Amino acid sequence: MTTQIILPIDQSEVQALSKSKNEPEWLSSLRLEALTLAGQLDYPKLEKTNLNRWSIDSYGKYKSSDSIKSLADLPQKFQTSLQDQKDNLLVQRNSNVVFQTLSDELTKQGVIFTDLETAAKEHSELVQKYFMQAVKKDENQLTAIHTSLWSGGVFLYVPKNVQVEIPLQVLFLNEDDTSIFSPHVLIVAESNSSVSYVDHVTSEGVANDLVHNSIVEVFVKPGAKVQFSTLHNLNGKITDLSYRRAVVENDGSIEWIIGEMNDGNCMSDTSSILKGNGSTSDAKIVCIGTNDQKLNITTNATHFGKSSDSDMITRAVMNDNSTAIINGVTKIEHGAKNANGEQTEKVLMLSPTARGDANPMLLIDEDEVTAGHAASVGQVDKNQIYYLMSRGISKETAERLIIYGFLAPVVSQIPIKQVADQLQALIEGKLER
Amino acid sequence: MSNSPKFVIDGLKATIENKEILKGINLEIKGGEVHAIMGPNGTGKSTLASAIMGHPKYEVTEGTATLNGVDLLEMEVDERARAGVFLAMQYPSEITGVTNADFLRSAINAKREEGDEISLIKFIRKMEGKMGELEMNPEFMHRYLNEGFSGGEKKRNEILQMAMLDPSVVILDEVDSGLDIDALKIVADGVNNMRSEERGFLIITHYQRLLDYITPDFVHVMMQGRIVKSGGPELAERLESEGYDWIKEELGIEDETVGQEEEEFKMPMNTVAPEFK
Ligand SMILES: Nc1ncnc2c1ncn2[C@@H]1O[C@H](COP(=O)(O)OP(=O)(O)OP(=O)(O)O)[C@@H](O)[C@H]1O
Ligand SMILES: [Mg+2]
Question: Is the pLDDT of residue B277 over 50?
Answer without folding.
Answer: no
